[in-house]
Amino acid sequence: QVQLVESGGGLVQAGGSLRLSCAGSARTFSRYGVGWFRQAPGQEREFVAAISWSGGRTLHADSVKGRFTISRVNARNTVYLQMNSLKPEDTAVYYCAADSKMYPVDTIVVVPTDYTYWGQGTQVTVSS
Hints:
Elements: E1 4-7, E2 10-13, E3 18-24, E4 33-39, E5 46-51, E6 58-60, E7 68-73, E8 78-83, E9 92-99, E10 117-118, E11 122-127
Parallel strand pairs: 2-11
Antiparallel strand pairs: 1-3, 3-8, 4-5, 4-9, 5-6, 7-8, 9-10, 9-11
């Protein structure tokens, strides 16, 4: 099992930046593929970005491509989401999710139901 803790959310003006962190508790966290999702009030959970266990593969949703970057430092058991040029429509609760069933295949997962473990979420609010 793994526990995930997100941090780094907050209130920022449009055009600003935030870096979200997702820290995993498992000693084998380096074997987990990780995804970031977001959910705004009244909307479904939306895929944002994902990274393979090695970090060698990444994918970003079209809505954030060129503005957000997912990365990981396995030695720190942490996955990051760097968010630049934030827009009001990026306002949501951001969740990280992880699963190890893809290991050792170096692939990424974009479907929320394919992830077993979820963090508690961190609020990101972008003011106009």
